[in-house]
Amino acid sequence: MSMNNPDNENRLRELFPFLQGAGSDFCRAFFDKVILAHLKTGNEVCAEGNTCTHLPLLVEGVARIYKSGENGKEITLYRIHPGESCVLTASCILSGRPFPATANVESNLAAALLPADFVRKWIGQDAAWQAYIFSLVADRLSAIIQVVEEVVFQRLDQRVAAYLLRHGSGSPTAIHATHQEIADELGTSREVVSRLLKSFEQGDAIRLSRGQVTVIDRDYLLGIGANGL
Question: Given 75, 106, 131, 209, which is the most exposed site by the fewest CB atoms within 10 A?
Answer without folding.
Answer: 209
